[in-house]
Amino acid sequence: MRVFTDSDIAATLREFGREALIWRQLWHPNLLPFFGIYYLDKRLCLVSPWMEAGNILAYLQTSQRPVIETERLSLMFDVAQGLRYLHGNNVVHGDLKAANILVTPSGRACIADFGLASIVDTITVRFKQSTTTVNGGTVRYQSPELIHGERRNFASDVYAYACTCYEILVEKVPFYEVINEAAVIFKVLSGIRPSCPPQCAQSLALRELWQIFKQCWEESTANRPLVGEIVQRLQGDPIFAQTTRVQMADWDETFTSKFRHHIQPKHASMTLEHFIPSSSDEPGIPNRLKPTEEISGIIVKRKYETEDRAQEKRIKVV
């Protein structure tokens, strides 16, 4: 569960409401489900399943046994499938990295914090003046165009995907040998990319994968593959295909809908119609938003309702 305090809410409620509405309508085995929004003791909370294994880097580093190559490749494939789903719904993640990839009890990778990570990073920059973020993302995973101040896009997600896979492979952040973030920016803008790790020399699958990484790291966005193309190439590789597995269910929509119903109707509701633009072509907004959406638990106008009334409340997207 992620929590925002009153001071944060005042600055980010507009974005928060829109992004929460988007997240709620996304559903894929390789995305972290959104259970609901909860307002308690002046704290705004985003509720999702608890992942005991933590993020993917913690999962790899704390495993009771060595995580073999095929398992790492399978995790990379999971991330690619989740990202393909997001891009298929016109959603740009914007901050893809190992810290935002969680691992389910069955060992499946799930993308988290999409669409919301930029809000948190904005807060970080405002109050801490951190140099670890540029344009709402993390420097070590950012493509050259983002460093130059351009908007996040599908191609920048693909660049970050390769950086994330690098981290899954070596269990270190890109450019781990460089401490200063400014030096990382200089390297990226100079065309330098993470070095091929020694284990690639011993594995045909990793050598094939590294060629994909190099294309994802191309300077020109036009030269980077689409994430759908990456998934197809991975599926078509006989060696890599051996790593894929049958997806196991860690949760289902029935449980999720019951959980939403349980936590939301007893609390105040929020009208989002003033915070959602009537139309927008900007990346990151799914083109299949439902004409109406039910959201309870966020406060803009404090209209405390009975449970029955709250269940009937409809939020009109105009």
UniProtKB/TrEMBL annotation:
UniProt KW keywords: Kinase, Transferase
Gene3D superfamilies: Transferase(Phosphotransferase) domain 1
One example GO MF annotation: protein serine/threonine kinase activity
Membrane-spanning ranges: none
Domain Protein kinase as annotated: residue spans: 1-240
Organism annotation: Mycena indigotica
InterPro entries linked: Kinase-like_dom_sf, Prot_kinase_dom, Ser-Thr/Tyr_kinase_cat_dom, Ser/Thr_kinase_AS, Ser/Thr_Kinases-Pseudokinases
UniProt name for this protein: Protein kinase domain-containing protein
Highest taxon listed in the record's lineage: Eukaryota
Keyword Endoplasmic reticulum appears in the UniProt entry: no
A Pfam family the protein falls into: PK_Tyr_Ser-Thr
SUPFAM superfamilies the UniProt entry points to: Protein kinase-like (PK-like) (SSF56112)
